[in-house]
Predict the 3D structure of the following.
Amino acid sequence: MRFNSLPLYVKILAGMVLGILLGIVAIQAGFVQGVNDWVKPFGEIFMRLLKFIAIPLVMISLIKGVGNLSDIASLSRLGFKTIGIYICTTVLAIVVGLVLVELIGPGKMVSTESAAAMQASYGATAAERSTEAEAMAETPPLQFLVDIFPDNMIGAMSNNGGMLQVIVIAILIGVAVLFVGKEKSAPFMNLVNSLDAVILKLIDIIMQYAPIGVLALMAGMIADTAGDLELLGALGLYVLTVVIGLLLMIFLFYPLLLKFFSKTPVRKFLTTMPPVQLLAFTTSSSAATLPLNMETVERKLGVSQRVTSFVLPMGMTINMDGTSLYQAVAVVFIAQVAGVDLSASQLLTIVVTTTLSSIGTPGVPGGAIVILIMVLSSVGLPAEGLALILGLDRPLDMLRTVVNVTGDATVASIVDSNTKTE
């Protein structure tokens, strides 16, 4: 069988395995710097291509999705339904994390010596992230609302303003299209439809490079962890707690939602999503995975284009189920290591703070760390506790991104199943 005829997820999986093996060989042969110099750049190219296409994809897809709605009332129904479901899944993910970490108690298994060693290794990084969190906390309470409205369209599209500003621009243009009317907006929408077709074809071209990009990313990541491998053993139970929670979300929680609230068959969903999940695992970026996720959900799961183009870009920004579950486990874990028993009101504070902060969590590698410090401070835990888990953030970031994109696709299927008859 020729390699080109294999399914995409098989190619990506092959690239991932070869990358891991190459990284291990590089560690054993003392060729880590060689991997960083000659292999890792190809992974960075792949990431750049994915990020390069993400903003035009979100812009064009949202304009097309909103512009093709029948009226403003349809947009309101779709928007409130999407945001409401996302918030519900986020809260449930946090509760799952809290229940697991309380039952397993991973923080009680970490020795004082191990905790001190990790704090010494990552104390400087934790202090740096703590300073960033303090700066965020000192901003006016409604500054986040001001920041999502751009004052420069070009600046917002250059990603200086973040993806939320791009979404606002696209929705405003789509709303203007609705007010103008289909007859006058027809030439503009024809252009949007043409751009949409070009962007989708560009995604197909970029994904042909995916196996090489994934191989390079994995090889670089494994090589970079050469000095930190001994730290993984001390926090094995913590990792296990997070992984169990994330797997429960993928294989139990989302399938149940699909079974009871969607017309999408669970088996079809689980067999369709692996390419998206593998890409999310490798890149640790919901934004980088968005193009493939949109293509998969629309073409293979049969979700309508108007729902896909609205729900998935919104989900990339506000839906962070995996990240929220991880943050809940991390906060309680740090409290357990410190010997602090969290009260019921403090656990409720974690739920509320994590849910609200998830809306602003960047869909990029490591984006959850700064937000995590804010959650720690909300229950009176020292930001220095972050040093305990920084060594494991990267692999767990990969796993929680898988949950994030799977949750986006699940909600898109649910929304589509409940809007086709409207």
Q: What stands out?
A: The radius of gyration is 22 Å. Residues 14 and 277 are 14 Å apart (CA to CA). Confidence is low (pLDDT under 50) at residues 121-126, 227-234, 362-367. The chain has 20 helices and no strands.
